[in-house]
């Protein structure tokens, strides 16, 4: 990376680490007409929890880094605090990715709740107010990833996340997930009987997110709504026409709300049903193509059957950069330790429409190499010459 790109990013990191208040209280209202539009001619680069392979997940810094690296969409998981504020956080417990264990004032908050049919013990997000959550600091999930940013960044709200996308120098889409809606609705209550899903859609509407896929409104502020819970997707389809993605878990995991098996929700009849509410599916990639002994096996026909119903396919998660050797544990042996081989396989052989990645820059570099956003100078020069010739010929007539 050039030094000119490093200096402002480091400056932003220092601001985030030192600021005692949220850096993004409200999005700015800059002139959207001057922004580079989102690309729609190649598979979407979806920054999974931000550029979380480099910076702790779901933090403002991780999302800004992803935008800098070329993400089309920044992806987040939405949960709710005890006082009903929507926040960006993946786990229902705080144990794995925050410093909660160091906060002795919260020692008595450990609980055991049932989550998706399993008893889970830990410090639950829903037992802490936003102010208390803001006092915690986020840390890297995996020990083999860069630890230098541990303790520097706080949990952010859904609104702060949105403002990061709206303040980007180009059009950047958002890809929020309604996370564990059954559990959240059991534990957090809002006035007037509103549900978690209602608050989720209200927030999107507040900041102008609306419009069906590829509509003029959507292209101005692109967004996908995602969830593993089909009833939540059906519910919000009556409130917003924003495109929705049905996430599909491992073959062993039933749906959290309807208790349907993987085989039920990937059947032809179910795809025929859900296509009326969603524009695509988001399966775990190792269910699209099964794996044995770290080798890909015979691909399933899920992608073909989805495409036959005009459903997009956005698999998750591509968890490696190009150079970090420790990440190769996520890279199947078929690809000779080269993530570009994997990207090429999924994009050009399997034909997926978007990819969730922990390393936005790696995928962006591959796509710029194989299908660049802009033609090179020579091609641009040839195009200008053709236009000049056409004008010249026209003026002679």
Automatic annotation (TrEMBL):
Its EC number is 3.1.4.46. GO terms for biological process: glycerol metabolic process; lipid metabolic process. GO terms for cellular component: vacuole. It is an enzyme of class 3 (hydrolase). It catalyses: a sn-glycero-3-phosphodiester + H2O = an alcohol + sn-glycerol 3-phosphate + H(+). Residues 1-20 form the signal peptide. It comes from the Eukaryota. Keywords: Glycerol metabolism, Glycoprotein, Hydrolase, Signal. Residues 43-367 form the GP-PDE domain. Pfam families: GDPD (PF03009). GO terms for molecular function: glycerophosphodiester phosphodiesterase activity. Belongs to the glycerophosphoryl diester phosphodiesterase family. This is glycerophosphodiester phosphodiesterase. It comes from Escallonia rubra.
């Amino acid at each position: 990376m050039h030094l000119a790109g490093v200096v402002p990013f480091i400056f932003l990191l220092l601001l985030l680490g030192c600021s005692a208040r949220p850096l993004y209280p409200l999005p700015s209202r800059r002139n959207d007409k001057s922004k580079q539009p989102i690309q729609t001619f190649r598979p979407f680069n979806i920054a999974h929890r931000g550029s979380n392979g480099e910076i702790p997940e779901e933090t403002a810094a991780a999302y800004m880094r992803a935008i800098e690296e070329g993400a089309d969409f920044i992806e987040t998981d939405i949960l709710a605090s005890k006082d009903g504020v929507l926040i960006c956080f993946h786990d229902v417990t705080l144990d794995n990715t925050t410093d909660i264990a160091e906060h002795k004032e919260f020692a008595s908050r450990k609980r055991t709740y049932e989550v998706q049919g399993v008893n889970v013990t830990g410090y639950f997000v829903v037992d802490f107010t936003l102010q208390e959550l803001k006092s915690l600091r986020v840390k890297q999930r995996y020990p083999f990833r860069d630890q230098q940013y541990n303790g520097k960044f706080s949990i952010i709200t859904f609104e702060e996340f949105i403002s990061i996308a709206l303040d980007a120098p180009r059009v950047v889409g958002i890809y929020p997930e309604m996370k564990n809606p059954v559990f959240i609705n059991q534990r957090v209550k809002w006035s007037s009987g509103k549900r978690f899903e209602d608050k989720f859609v209200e927030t999107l509407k507040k900041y102008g997110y609306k419009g069906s896929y590829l509509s003029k409104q959507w292209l101005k502020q692109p967004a996908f709504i995602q969830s593993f819970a089909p009833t939540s997707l059906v519910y919000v389809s009556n409130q917003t026409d924003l495109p929705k993605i049905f996430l599909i878990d491992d073959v062993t995991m039933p749906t959290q709300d309807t208790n349907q098996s993987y085989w039920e929700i990937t059947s032809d009849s179910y795809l025929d049903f859900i296509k009326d509410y969603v524009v695509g599916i988001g399966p775990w990639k190792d269910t699209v193509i099964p794996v044995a002994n770290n080798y890909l096996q015979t691909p399933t026909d899920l992608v073909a059957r989805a495409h036959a119903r005009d459903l997009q396919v956005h698999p998750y998660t591509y968890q490696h950069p190009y150079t970090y050797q420790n990440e190769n544990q996520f890279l199947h042996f078929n690809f000779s330790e080269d993530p570009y081989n994997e990207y090429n396989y999924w994009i050009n052989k399997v034909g997926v429409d978007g990819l969730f990645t922990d390393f936005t820059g790696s995928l962006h570099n591959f796509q710029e190499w194989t299908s660049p956003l802009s033609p090179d100078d020579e091609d641009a020069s040839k195009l200008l010459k053709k236009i000049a010739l056409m004008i010249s010929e026209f003026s002679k007539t």
